[in-house]
Amino acid sequence: MTALSRLRASPARYFLDNASGVAAVEMAFIAPVALTLLCVGFAGGQTLNLNHKVVLAAHSTTDLVARSIYIQDPNNPQGELLGYTALDADIAFSQLIMYPDANGTLTEVMSELEVNTGNNTGVVVWSRPSPGATGLPIGTVITLDPSYSATGANYLLYGQVNYTFQPLGGLLSLPPITLSSTETLTIRNAPQIDLDPNS
Amino acid sequence: MRVSSFVASRSARALARFWRCDKGVNAIEFAFVVPIIIAILLATAQVGVIFTAQAYLNEVAETGMRTVLTNQANNLTQDQFKSAICSNVTALFNCANLIVELEQAPSTAASMSTAMPQFDANGNLTQPTTYTLAPAPAQMLLVVMYQWPVIGGPLGLNFGSLGNGAYLLVSTQVFMIEPPT
Question: What is the ipTM of this complex?
């Protein structure tokens, strides 16, 4: 009985008995799993690396604003003046920290909170967003960790960085991932920072 | 005529024998499958190494930042500063290929795009790196880069991000120099 006649007699039996191409068939089972592991590994590494940069961006930019060079606010003995140009530059440093990952959407909002030690909250006094972002509305209440109230500071800086990106550069239709980091720091050179409307 | 028909019939028989023969079928199937296996294995190994190297570069850049931030780089030349950074590099990187740029951070948001080192289509720096130290309390920008050599695997699996096929690792630090005590 030839192979052709066996195939004609019972195609299913012929297929089950046939051992040809077994390596290719096994590879067809294994390849999707291996490729999935590769993609998950790459996307995971990419996400961890970007998350490190997002955290660094939030910390560095908030720290730079908190350490702004002291210029006395003539209208507020407790306040120092910070110009919009300098503040916008500090916020934009997050672009440099994220470099060369420029395919995602990076937004940052820098705000000042007035601390309410009674209920461990902070009320937004001013908020400055990066281009394309939306600042926090003045008066928004943010819940703070009790340790911030314990510092005795009346005002705190609150920096928020968000980065939305497509894992694997959009190679596969994976949903976008948004990484976020917030940093809360005390103001170093004065009790309060006032924005200078003239600069 | 007889010779040519003999050769033709012999060739036909040899071809038929070859077609029916199933010796070495595993080797032939393996030859089809092995490029896929090698591509996946090579790519998986490289992904692990690339992101390990990136984490290591972040540590190197942070150490370099601390050197500048604490005024320990005030009397160093560009080469000496690079050597100081390289002293923290014990594995993974070839120090000669480390790209280090230190400059005063841009003062406006609009000038951020020109602050970073740029590469041409062949992966070469378009301009030499700068090394400028400003007195405290200046805001400084430290960029440490490394062109990680990527081995292109079969089936076009290549992670290179530069024109020369290398993967660009970057760690950027923005900080304010502390006043000397």
Answer: 0.82
